[in-house]
């Protein structure tokens, strides 16, 4: 199951972030400002993800998660292909809305399924296997999609990534069995919770709040910077879309996979079964990686920028699996999809609405009414880079109550809802 959820997450990330690789060609063809292209490519997806994520996850906590997951993969993959067929602003906008609609139920449902295959102390390692989909998907969305776009145009990159996802969605529907909720926890399935009860319990779990904020701000910081990186490389160093995608594509694949595998190995060790130590490692890793993330966009040397990318980009992966697992560990077994959906909502608001719009607006403002360029985009990225320290602060606070909150979640018995 961990391998299949990894594949699902791979197409999720690839379909979502292929747009960042071809951001500049889309902007030029549609004659948009930096803020305008940021809105088109990020905000519609995120708004529908946010709007539908909680109700879909509530349904998943009360019904067959396998069917919901398979349907969601089919929807977002199909609409990714629709983006490749679009010819106008409105058609592309509708395609991105469809991607957001499908993705709203993908990650929460797959997280809740995977949690019922592993006990609490093994989930950080298991979810890091799932999180391998992030570097694999980013590599597909950067390097492979960039090469396809350079040879056949930006629309072909969406088609190349959308069609395989449809096949994976069918595999989910035909092969996955639905496990009993909470079968590895003290309290087994049989309870039902309203959205209000789930969110009230989440708010009382301070570790859950801080890990969701920590991973959300990590998305703002790391994935927000990556969103604009191909455009930054094209403007600053005169690279074409294929060359810009290749600069970070290999780093996503090699360093991202190594970071994810190394994290899975580390958190599977006996001395890391204490969740507080997981939080301390995450805090230190994100804080240290914030420094090269700033230097990468400050320097005017492509060689130095590449070195900084090799230090910074792995950090946007190693926190994903452990944070997913910590969120699941702080949730009662019949609330896991809602907890995961709230975490996804927070992360996607930060990295698909706030980060692209913030950087785009800062770039337009710095340009002062003139055409945006490398200098204006550099300014926006340098404002965003230090937010990594903010993320590290929340991850540190998670460790202060994580043990108590896991015990509360494991023993929680609420009011049953039909």
What topology emerges from the helices and strands here?
Elements: H1 2-21, H2 23-30, H3 34-60, H4 65-85, H5 89-103, H6 106-115, H7 123-131, H8 133-152, H9 154-175, H10 195-204, H11 206-237, H12 241-267, H13 275-298, H14 302-312, H15 315-318, H16 320-329, H17 336-367, H18 374-384, H19 387-411
Helix pairs in contact: 1-4, 1-6, 1-7, 1-8, 1-9, 1-11, 3-5, 3-17, 4-5, 4-6, 4-9, 6-17, 7-12, 7-16, 8-9, 8-12, 11-12, 11-16, 11-17, 11-18, 11-19, 13-14, 13-19, 17-18
General description of the model:
The model has no long low-confidence stretch (mean pLDDT 86). The protein is globular. By secondary structure, it is mostly helical. The chain is built from 19 helices and no strands. The two termini are 29 Å apart. The protein has helices spanning 2-21, 23-30, 34-60, 65-85, 89-103, 106-115, 123-131, 133-152, 154-175, 195-204, 206-237, 241-267, 275-298, 302-312, 315-318, 320-329, 336-367, 374-384, 387-411.
């Amino acid at each position: 199951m961990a391998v299949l959820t990894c594949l699902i997450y791979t197409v999720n990330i690839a379909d979502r972030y292929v747009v960042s690789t071809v951001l500049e060609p889309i902007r030029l063809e549609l004659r948009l400002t930096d803020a305008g292209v940021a809105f088109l490519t990020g905000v519609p997806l995120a708004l529908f993800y946010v709007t539908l994520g909680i109700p879909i996850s509530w349904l998943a906590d009360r019904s067959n998660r396998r069917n919901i997951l398979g349907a969601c993969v089919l929807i977002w993959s199909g609409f990714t292909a629709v983006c490749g067929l679009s010819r106008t602003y409105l058609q592309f906008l509708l395609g991105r809305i469809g991607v957001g609609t499908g993705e709203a139920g993908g990650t929460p449902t797959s997280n809740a399924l995977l949690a019922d295959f592993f006990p609490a102390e093994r989930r950080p390692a298991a979810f890091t296997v799932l999180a391998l989909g992030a570097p694999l998907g980013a590599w597909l969305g950067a390097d492979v999609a960039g090469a396809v776009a350079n040879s056949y145009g930006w629309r072909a990159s969406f088609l190349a990534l959308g069609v395989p996802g449809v096949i994976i969605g069918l595999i989910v529907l035909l092969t996955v069995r639905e496990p009993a909720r909470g079968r590895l926890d003290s309290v087994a399935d049989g309870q039902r919770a309203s959205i209000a009860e789930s969110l009230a319990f989440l708010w009382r779990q301070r570790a859950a709040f801080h890990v969701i904020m920590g991973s959300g701000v990590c998305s703002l910081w790391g994935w927000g910077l990556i969103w604009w990186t191909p455009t930054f490389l094209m403007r600053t160093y005169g690279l074409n879309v294929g060359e810009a995608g290749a600069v970070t594509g290999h780093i996503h694949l090699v360093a991202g996979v190594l970071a994810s595998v190394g994290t899975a190995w580390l958190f599977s060790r006996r001395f890391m079964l204490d969740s507080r130590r997981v939080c301390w490692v995450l805090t230190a890793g994100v804080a240290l990686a914030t420094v090269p993330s700033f230097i990468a966009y400050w320097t005017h040397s492509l060689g130095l920028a590449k070195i900084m990318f090799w230090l910074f980009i792995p950090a946007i992966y190693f926190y994903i699996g452990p944070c997913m697992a910590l969120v699941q560990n702080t949730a009662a077994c019949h609330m896991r999809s809602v907890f995961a959906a709230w975490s996804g909502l927070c992360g996607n608001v930060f990295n698909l609405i706030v980060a692209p719009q913030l950087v785009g607006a800062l770039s337009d403002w710095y340009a002062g009414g003139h055409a945006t360029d490398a200098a204006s985009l550099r300014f926006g990225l340098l404002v965003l880079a230090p937010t990594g320290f903010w993320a590290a602060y929340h991850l540190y606070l998670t460790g202060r109550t994580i043990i108590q909150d896991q015990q509360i979640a494991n023993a929680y018995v609420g009011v049953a809802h039909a």
